[in-house]
């Protein structure tokens, strides 16, 4: 599983970073970036939670089978 953040949608609330700092960090420009390529299995639950809780709906899961 991969995850991405749309910087145009992200409003920099940082909820994703608070939930899973192993996978997300806040960029200096005020939006979140993804730190990992493939999300480690132990962080998948937290990443799913971040997707659900992001107020801007800016986090997207990427199905591995559809990745370039
Ligand atoms: S929770 Fe959503 S809006 Fe907030 S920093 Fe993360 S991606 Fe951006």
Describe this structure in words.
- The protein is built from 2 helices and 4 strands.
- By secondary structure, the protein is of the alpha+beta class.
- It has one domain: Alpha-Beta Plaits (2-Layer Sandwich).
- Strands 1-4 form a two-stranded antiparallel sheet.
- The model has no long low-confidence stretch (mean pLDDT 94).
- Bound molecules: iron/sulfur cluster (SF4).
- Iron/sulfur cluster binds next to α1.
End-to-end gap: 13 Å
Output the CATH class name. Answer: Alpha Beta
Bound molecules: iron/sulfur cluster
- Rg, please? 11 Å
- How many domains make up the coordinates? 1
SS class = alpha+beta
Task: Kindly estimate the percentage of residues that lie in beta strands according to DSSP.
Answer: 15-25%
Tell me the overall shape. globular
What is the residue-averaged pLDDT? 94
Output the CATH topology: Alpha-Beta Plaits
Order of helices and strands: EHEEHE
**Describe the biggest sheet?**
2 strands, antiparallel
Count of helical regions = 2
Total number of beta strands: 4
Largest beta sheet: strand ordering? 1-4
How helix-rich are the residues, as a percent range? 10-25%
Topology readout:
Elements: E1 2-5, H1 15-19, E2 24-26, E3 32-34, H2 44-53, E4 59-62
Antiparallel strand pairs: 1-4, 2-3
The protein binds iron/sulfur cluster.
List the defining traits of the structure above.
Alpha-Beta Plaits, alpha+beta, two-stranded antiparallel ribbon, 2 helices, 68 residues, 4 strands, binds iron/sulfur cluster
What's this, in brief?
This protein is α+β, with helices and mostly antiparallel strands and 68 residues long.
